[in-house]
């Protein structure tokens, strides 16, 4: 049977997300639960590693958008090395993605790039570097056997893993590095949170962020060609009436769900609705042309206006 990698997908892997810690620089706030773009930071990270075979979150259990397995370091608050050791005990894949729970801009493509870098270089780990070129060992993928080897050595040397810094763990690993100042951005302070909240509302990001938030909120795991739906909404608004845009896209979604809910079903429903909107627009454009059966305008001399085509009196109306 071919492996995941053989058929062009990412290397089979598990994920460990470290979501404990005291968040002292946030005044002790529940950092994984802080919302950026309407979603908790932890849920954003879980979305980025959704292709993992098993996902382990090391923290006290809480509601999450995706199902996960929970683990806890002993004692709680013993630090990232101890937390990683606790999470790793629940993994079985040869490769593990290791992430912190405060990465607002991490996406699945960055995780895939790390997996590809690890596989291509033959190293023991691949991690992102930030805007200043610093290693980010909690935005990384590792060979599970290498992590277990180093954790065992540290535990034997220090009589346990509590309180050890991550650099003691990664120092013994052969690492490759992938620069990515955006995906590696983490939220340590309230200023970082403010920066993240502002950035996702910028014009170039807001639509993708909103779609991701809605899908998480509704429990939808579907890649949709937003361009197709936006074109449909435009054609319905221009060719029929403005209220037709949201209603039509809703009906397309409903029809696609009835047909199985695949991206192909969405595309087919959108194609049919777009074709209908274009036919409707063509008829509207031809309504005033004499065809031998109807006059160009009604007998009262008033233009033939559909009941829902009320004048647009908004300040931005063209």
Task: Walk me through this protein's architecture.
The chain is of the alpha/beta class. The protein is 41% helix and 13% strand. It has ten helices and nine strands. It has helices spanning 41-48, 80-88, 108-121, 144-158, 166-170, 190-199, 203-218, 226-239, 244-258, 263-286; strands at residues 14-18, 35-36, 39-40, 55-58, 69-71, 95-100, 125-129, 135-143, 175-179. Strands 5-4-1-6-8-7-9 form a seven-stranded mixed sheet, sandwiched between helices. The chain has a two-stranded antiparallel sheet with strand order 2-3. The radius of gyration is 26 Å and the shape is elongated.
Helix-strand blueprint:
Elements: E1 14-18, E2 35-36, E3 39-40, H1 41-48, E4 55-58, E5 69-71, H2 80-88, E6 95-100, H3 108-121, E7 125-129, E8 135-143, H4 144-158, H5 166-170, E9 175-179, H6 190-199, H7 203-218, H8 226-239, H9 244-258, H10 263-286
Parallel strand pairs: 1-4, 1-6, 4-5, 7-9
Antiparallel strand pairs: 2-3, 6-8, 7-8
